[in-house]
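Following up on my earlier message about flavin-adenine dinucleotide. Here are the inputs again, as you asked, copied directly from the submission form:
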Amino acid sequence: MLITLDGGRISIGAMALGLGQAAFDCALKYAAGHKEFGKPIAYQQGIGFKLADMATELEAARLMIYETSRLKDAGKPFSRQSAMCKLFASEVATRTAANAIGILGEVGISIGRYPAERVWRDVKLCEIGEGTSEIQRLVIARDLVKSVEKV
Ligand SMILES: Cc1cc2nc3c(=O)[nH]c(=O)nc-3n(C[C@H](O)[C@H](O)[C@H](O)COP(=O)(O)OP(=O)(O)OC[C@H]3O[C@@H](n4cnc5c(N)ncnc54)[C@H](O)[C@@H]3O)c2cc1C
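Thanks, got it. Here's what our run produced:
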């Protein structure tokens, strides 16, 4: 049963990544096209920094998911890594969706106008299903301690 969860956590991580990427794509396109004070808001440093952080965190989540999938395909232990990639990707995706809504402003929370709003409603489930973030932290911490005890 626990082995099944290990595999499922990669899937939830990948689902979170897809949702986060959709929210980011929406925010980037909007920021590059929506003008305030004579220029696209993407050129305002505060917005640009947010976009940079969102893209960086999504890239890190993507690499964690690829690496965990590689370990699974190679038949190597991947319990800790699957908990880590699920935990990280789901929290990154939730943060990304919240930031995307912030970048869109009022139109961001209008139901059905931009995809970021739907992502924001849906993405939280990735922090709950297949074990909550607290449970992922428990799994990771126990595995870390076990690895030291073995030595
Ligand atoms: C969209 C969705 C799809 C789902 N699909 C499935 C499915 O297909 N199959 C299936 O079996 N389940 C499924 N679930 C259930 C999901 O796995 C559980 O909701 C999840 O594991 C949390 O359990 P719970 O809701 O009973 O919360 P609880 O266990 O009651 O937890 C409530 C809160 O307490 C915290 N908590 C509980 N225990 C501890 C602890 N020891 N230490 C620290 N914090 C703790 C939790 O992190 C959470 O914040 C799904 C859930 C969602 C939202």
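One observation from looking it over: The pocket of flavin-adenine dinucleotide is lined by residues 125, 128-132, 134-135, 138 (CB under 6 Å). Hope that helps, and feel free to reply on this thread.
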